[in-house]
């Protein structure tokens, strides 16, 4: 599992990205940024709104979507569209320590981050054998908890 993002640095990065895009950091947006920086579970926009509402009431879902779109365009938030689920978000900071992949529990929709040097090496070898080098990739496993065997 990946460690959660370094929240103060991430919060500063998210705030700076909004300002760089010319977006005013209102109380509602600041609450959203705090929630996003603290999230370790890849929440979707309605979940982010719900969490931010607990801190600062009155944040609209449209504000959440517009803010996330701006942060994604600025490259500080990653948007994931896993099969059968709404878009989920994570700060790009959480990937600075290295690439990670995802397992999605098909029963609970939980997203589990993991790193595997073996998988990374195998992907690079396959691409090289076929005459390519990897520019970018995404690896997702859709999983279900194994049942105990008697």
From TrEMBL:
<keyword id="KW-0862">Zinc</keyword>
<dbReference type="GO" id="GO:0005829">
    <property type="term" value="C:cytosol"/>
</dbReference>
<keyword id="KW-0479">Metal-binding</keyword>
<keyword id="KW-0963">Cytoplasm</keyword>
<dbReference type="GO" id="GO:0008270">
    <property type="term" value="F:zinc ion binding"/>
</dbReference>
<dbReference type="GO" id="GO:0000976">
    <property type="term" value="F:transcription cis-regulatory region binding"/>
</dbReference>
<feature type="binding site">
    <location>
        <position position="101"/>
    </location>
    <ligand>
        <name>Fe cation</name>
    </ligand>
</feature>
<dbReference type="GO" id="GO:1900705">
    <property type="term" value="P:negative regulation of siderophore biosynthetic process"/>
</dbReference>
<keyword id="KW-0678">Repressor</keyword>
<keyword id="KW-0805">Transcription regulation</keyword>
<feature type="binding site">
    <location>
        <position position="120"/>
    </location>
    <ligand>
        <name>Fe cation</name>
    </ligand>
</feature>
<dbReference type="InterPro" id="IPR036388">
    <property type="entry name" value="WH-like_DNA-bd_sf"/>
</dbReference>
<dbReference type="InterPro" id="IPR036390">
    <property type="entry name" value="WH_DNA-bd_sf"/>
</dbReference>
<comment type="similarity">
    <text>Belongs to the Fur family.</text>
</comment>
<dbReference type="GO" id="GO:0045892">
    <property type="term" value="P:negative regulation of DNA-templated transcription"/>
</dbReference>
<comment type="subunit">
    <text>Homodimer.</text>
</comment>
<keyword id="KW-0408">Iron</keyword>
<keyword id="KW-0238">DNA-binding</keyword>
<feature type="binding site">
    <location>
        <position position="137"/>
    </location>
    <ligand>
        <name>Fe cation</name>
    </ligand>
</feature>
<keyword id="KW-0804">Transcription</keyword>
<dbReference type="Pfam" id="PF01475">
    <property type="entry name" value="FUR"/>
</dbReference>
<dbReference type="InterPro" id="IPR002481">
    <property type="entry name" value="FUR"/>
</dbReference>
<dbReference type="InterPro" id="IPR043135">
    <property type="entry name" value="Fur_C"/>
</dbReference>
<dbReference type="GO" id="GO:0003700">
    <property type="term" value="F:DNA-binding transcription factor activity"/>
</dbReference>
<protein>
    <recommendedName>
        <fullName>Ferric uptake regulation protein</fullName>
    </recommendedName>
</protein>
<feature type="binding site">
    <location>
        <position position="99"/>
    </location>
    <ligand>
        <name>Fe cation</name>
    </ligand>
</feature>
């Amino acid at each position: 599992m990946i460690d959660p993002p370094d929240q103060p640095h991430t919060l500063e990065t998210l705030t700076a990205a909004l300002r760089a895009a010319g977006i005013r950091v209102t109380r509602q947006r600041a609450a959203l940024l705090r929630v996003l920086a603290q999230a370790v579970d890849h929440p979707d926009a309605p979940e982010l709104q719900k969490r931010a509402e607990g801190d600062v009431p009155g944040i609209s879902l449209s504000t959440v979507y517009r803010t996330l779109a701006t942060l994604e365009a600025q490259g500080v938030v990653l948007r994931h569209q896993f099969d059968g689920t709404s878009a989920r978000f994570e700060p790009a900071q959480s990937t600075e320590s290295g690439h990670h992949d995802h397992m999605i529990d098909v029963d609970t929709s939980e997203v589990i981050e993991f790193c595997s040097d073996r998988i990374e090496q195998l992907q690079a070898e396959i691409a090289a054998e076929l005459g390519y080098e990897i520019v970018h990739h995404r690896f997702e496993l859709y999983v279900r908890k194994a049942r105990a065997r008697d």
